[in-house]
Amino acid sequence: MSASDMFAPPVNRAMKVLDRSFFQRTIPTSAARIFSQKDISRCRLELEKSKDIIGTNRALLIRSDPDQERAGAGGKCVLLRPEVIHNDPTTWSPKLRDLEQDGTVGVIPYQLHLDYNYFSYTEIMNAIITQSETPEQHEVPTGFALAGHVAHVNLRERYLPYKHLIATVLADKNPQVRTVINKVDYVGTENEFRTFQYEVLHGPDDMEVTLKEQDCTFAFDFAKVYWNSRLHTEHERLCGIFKEGEVVCDVMAGIGPFAIPAGKKKCFVYANDLNPESYKYLNVAIRMNKVGDFVRPFNEDGHEFIKTAAVELLRAEHEVAIYPKKKTSRSNPKARSPPRPLKTFVQPKIMSHYVMNLPASAITFLPSFIGLYSSVPGMPSSEIRKLLAPHTEQKLPMIHVHCFSTKSEDDVAETKEICEEISRQLQYEITPDTPELQVWDVRDVAPKKRMFCASFRLPEEVAFREV
């Protein structure tokens, strides 16, 4: 038996209900009995260097001596590799022989017992799930999205007979998981709010979750709103682009994974979502994270919101003063006088960024930018142009639109295709060579499908086109 097989759990392909007691294994090996407790650390270090110690980092290396009468109360031993045979010094390293000969250690037989707690999720699943006909197609389902205490899996059809086993072991091996759910919608179907039907595979049907991302707290009903923890890197990437004092228009804001961190960064944010439940929990996040001075929530259609938010911003007057944190003192009346603000942020008149994180259809919202500033009631285009470069430092907004495409090694074809679709929607040519154009590879979502974020500056000819 190879070393890897020796440390693998026993196999039971017929198991349908998890029996944790089945997963037991006893490995005959050896141990170095340490006669003096002061030598424990030194012996472990030297035996690690000589590669005598057992090759697993999941088992405790220092154990109580199995023969306490002989070793003495509190006696310890160090587990050795199964290849080291206690009564055959030819299997010992020179270092182990030296330690034994000088009386520091004695080499003894040891029965190492492994149970369910030792084995990993993948090892347990490999011992239960029937292997596919071709080994390269056998892949134990390991991926899941975590939202608070809820783990969300998307199981392929061949794994559905094992779904409750998978969920139970997944929860066992991930202490933060209390509930495991599986999506039951047909692949490719989504409602307009990006929520889905699910079945509970393990734990309570409790979808009220609380989680942290980018040092912000979010609390929401996972069954009623869209949340994808796999997008945390994208949330951080875009928020890293925003600068304090800028205005960000989050057209499909959800519960605020872009909007709340941006507000915490002291960006002014117009955050909108069509889903009333998302709007509800967006308000919760604004209160919990104390960003009400910077983040305004809306519950409107995104097509219209692109236009109305731009017009409202032109007319709005809003500033936020940041004061030092200072404790008042009864003995010092001056300390109770209003402090001077450290900094005052005046809300600009022009958006700096539009975020459109609805990859299935966001790109079809781009026509709403046509004529964005050409027909503002009571404000001629010439007046709006004076708010922009070269008259000021303010530029037209960057558009960050998420979308799906195919996948390739270099994304060249996909970038070209995305630019062509943007051009078609805006009726204005955007190419891979357009200044400030970036098509960012966000993540793979399927074997032949990838999510991208196309970022580009809103062209003046589009923003001021007469319509």
Walk me through the topology.
Layout: H1 3-6, E1 25-34, H2 40-49, E2 62-64, H3 68-71, E3 76-80, H4 94-101, E4 105-114, H5 121-128, E5 145-147, E6 150-153, H6 163-173, E7 179-183, E8 198-202, E9 208-213, E10 216-221, H7 232-241, E11 247-250, H8 259-264, E12 268-272, H9 276-288, E13 295-298, H10 302-315, E14 319-322, E15 343-346, E16 353-356, H11 381-385, E17 398-405, H12 412-426, E18 438-446, E19 449-457, H13 460-463
Subcellular location: Mitochondrion matrix; Nucleus; Cytoplasm
Pfam families: TRM5-TYW2_MTfase, TYW2_N_2
Keywords: Cytoplasm, Methyltransferase, Mitochondrion, Nucleus, S-adenosyl-L-methionine, Transferase, tRNA processing
Structure commentary:
By secondary structure, the chain is α/β, with parallel strands linked by helices. The protein folds into 3 domains: 25-114, Alpha-Beta Plaits (2-Layer Sandwich); 123-133 and 140-211, Met-10+ protein-like domains (GMP Synthetase, Chain A, domain 3, 2-Layer Sandwich); 220-463, Vaccinia Virus protein VP39 (Rossmann fold, 3-Layer(aba) Sandwich), CATH 3.40.50.150. The protein has 13 helices and 19 strands. Strands 13-12-11-16-17-19-18 form a 7-stranded mixed beta sheet, sandwiched between helices. Strands 2-3-1-4 form a 4-stranded antiparallel beta sheet. The longest helix has 15 residues, at 412-426. It is elongated, with a radius of gyration of 31 Å. 32% of the residues are buried. The mean pLDDT is 91.
